[in-house]
Every structure is written in C-alpha cells, then in structure tokens.
Amino acid sequence: MNTNIGIFAAEYYLPPKKKALSDIFRDEEMPAEPLAASVDFKKDIGIEAVHVAGDETAASLAINAAKRAIAHSGIDPQEIDFIIDFTSIPEDYVAPTWSAAGLVQREVGATRAFATAINTGGCASYQTTLKVACSLLSANERYQTALLIAGDKTPEFNHNYYPITVVSDGGSAVILKKNVERRRILGVEVATLGRLHDIWVIPGIHNRDPKDIGGKFPKWLHVCGDIARFNKELIPMNLFMFRKVMLGVLKQVGKKFEDVSYFIYPTFSAWDLKAFCEAFKVPKEKIFLDGLHHGHLQETDMVLDYVDAINAGRIKDGDLVMLTTNGAGFSWGATLVQH
Predict the structure, then answer these.
(1) Taking Cα atoms as reference points, which of 219, 239, 195 lies closest to residue 329?
(2) Which of 80, 165, 176, 334 lies 20 to 30 angstroms, CA to CA, from 7?
C-alpha cells in the first residue's frame, strides 16, 4: 500500500430530530429471547436517543456530509477522481445498480469522478472501502483524490436492533489524498465469515414472510435477526475475529498492540464497549466513548467518533490510531492511521 495516502478531511451530518429510546421501545417489537452475554439490553445499552431523518432522504444525509467535507478540505470538487458509497442501510432506490454515489457526484459538482458503491460489509463497509480506495489510488498514477460517502436512513419501526443496539440516522464523508504527511493510512485488514451472511438481514422482496406484511408493524423493509444463531455462532467468534484483524493490520506495518495510542470503536452499546475494552485490556482513556449519545450510526460510527475524538483533543500529532469494527454480512475490519 502507498503509505502516503491519508485522510485529508472527514465530516459527518446528523439530522436534528431525535427520538428517545423509551419511545423506540414503546413503538417497536423486541424479541423475548435472552442475550447469551447475560446483559439487560434496555438497562445496559447506554443510549438515550437516536437521530431520525424524518423527511430527509438517506442520500441527502450523504450529500450534506460530502459538502461539509469538501468545504472543510478546500478542494475543488473537480479534483475528485472517484466516489465510493459505503452505506449499509438500503438506499433511496433498490435497482438498477443504484447508489448515492452518482447523486452525490452530481450535487457536489465532481464532474470528473467515477462513482460506485461498496456496501456488503455492513458496519464494516468503511474498512472495506478504505482498502479498495487505497488500492485504487496506489495502482493508478492519475488518481490523486477520492471521496467516500455514506448516508443511512433506518426503515420505520426498525431502530431497535435487539440484541445488538439501536440505530441512528446520519451521513458521513471522507476525502483521501495522495502525498500527505499527516493522518496517513498505514494499513487495512478485513475478514469475513460467510456462514454468518444471513444472521442479520433485511429480506428481499421474494424472501419476505407473508405474515410480516401488514399488522401493527409495517415490514416492507424489516430487519430480521436470528438471535439463536447470534448467541450460538456469532458471540463466540466475535472477539476472536477482532483480534485477527487487529493483529493482522499491525503485522502488515510492523507494529505491536502496545504501539496503538488510541482506539475508535463502534457505539453499539455500553456493555459491548466494556466487553471490548476488557478483552483487549484497553483503558478508557485510550478509546472514544462519547459517541454513545448519538446512538449507533452503522458504518458512520467510524467517521463520527474519529472526527469527534480529534476535535476533543483525544488524538494528537504522532498518535497511532486503530479504527476497528464489525458488520452484518458478516465482516470485521481494522485500520491503522498515523497522525
């Protein structure tokens, strides 16, 4: 990998409207099956409210974030060589081969850019996209600048992702550039477990259960989790896979776990953050915890927590930062950024 590729700018956009967790639990279904980790989902989640897009579209969330990132960076949109959409929640259109990348290209005036999407990694789509984007930049001398975007609008009555989290609406954007001295991406490692591909899904039109259509909860886009398999197959593998990708990216660049100055981790829940910190002996001062008040923003967690950690002075010049997450699909990813 060309180690002079860096995060030139990163921004996010959150819709101002919010919905309290108590209202989500009042309005939405919750399975009765207990979580194998022996936690109280409602009590231990650590999230009080989530952002709700309302009349804003998923794509508009990405557009707002992209415009902020471009303005912050000071680049001319016509400098952008390609745009990759890494959204994980269904976008404004299902087909044919649609993603928000083309719409963002039009709205920001990136007339030279090639637009495409990578959204098979769920919440880990950001890591997969970083890996692909860095490969494209490294392989093509003409490519100098990339824009990565995401915009998630949760289907109505689906903010409750028991037993994992509650999800929030929002958008994010990251600009990558070659030949930068700061915030250099040293390496990215991703891994998948294909046997878990359908453990957490939104069924397609031909896979919907007829009983899920209509009734109290409209389920045209209905998030389905197989909690029995989640407990039996995913939980035992989760920390093992996190260790695999984190050690993998450290090995790529000749670093050790103790060299990492700061961690960016998704805001699934307070209990999940605690489990990660205890498993890998990460002290609270070395991991960003403040993002929980936004709720879980899918793949945008990686961008929002990174931006807020920098703005709060938690990440300093010279720090080696580990961004790591997992995502339905089922995948894990880890990225090292040298500040």
Answers:
(1) 195
(2) 165
Instruction: Count other C-beta atoms under 10 Å from residue 106's C-beta.
Output: 12
- Write out the two tokens for 248: 């993998």
Name the amino acid, one letter, at 232: K
Task: For residue 228, give Cα distances in angstroms to 13, 29, 191, 194, 225.
Answer: 35, 17, 23, 17, 9
SS3 71: helix
Contacts of 126 (CB under 8 A, 6+ apart): 86, 148, 150, 299, 302, 303, 323, 325, 333
Cis preceding-peptide flag for 217 (omega within 30 of 0): no
What pLDDT shows up at residue 329?
83
Instruction: Give the helix, strand, coil percentages of the chain, each rounded to 5.
Output: 40, 25, 40
Whole-angstrom CA distances from 144 to 128, 134, 137, 174, 271 are 19, 10, 6, 14, 41
C-alpha 334, offset from chain centre: 12
Give the model confidence (pLDDT) of 53-71 as tens digits. 999 999 999 999 999 999 9
CA distance 93 to 79: 28
The pLDDT confidence band at residue 113, using thresholds 50, 70 and 90, is very high
Q: Does the global pTM surpass 0.85?
A: yes
Question: Domains of the chain, with CATH numbers?
Answer: 6-181 (3.40.47.10), 188-338 (3.40.47.10)
For helices 235-253 and 270-280, give the axis angle rounded to 10 degrees.
Answer: 50
Give the type of residue at 326: N
**Four-point Cα dihedral 141, 335, 286, 289, nearest 10:** 110
Between helix 100-108 and helix 58-73 the angle, nearest 10°, is 40
Closest CA to 262 of 315, 211, 313: 315
Rounded to 5 degrees, φ, ψ at 254 are 70, 35
- Residue 162 CB neighbours (<10 A): 21
Extract the tokens encoding 119.
């959204």
Q: What are phi and psi of 244, to 5 degrees?
A: -60, -50
Question: What is the number of residues in the chain?
Answer: 339
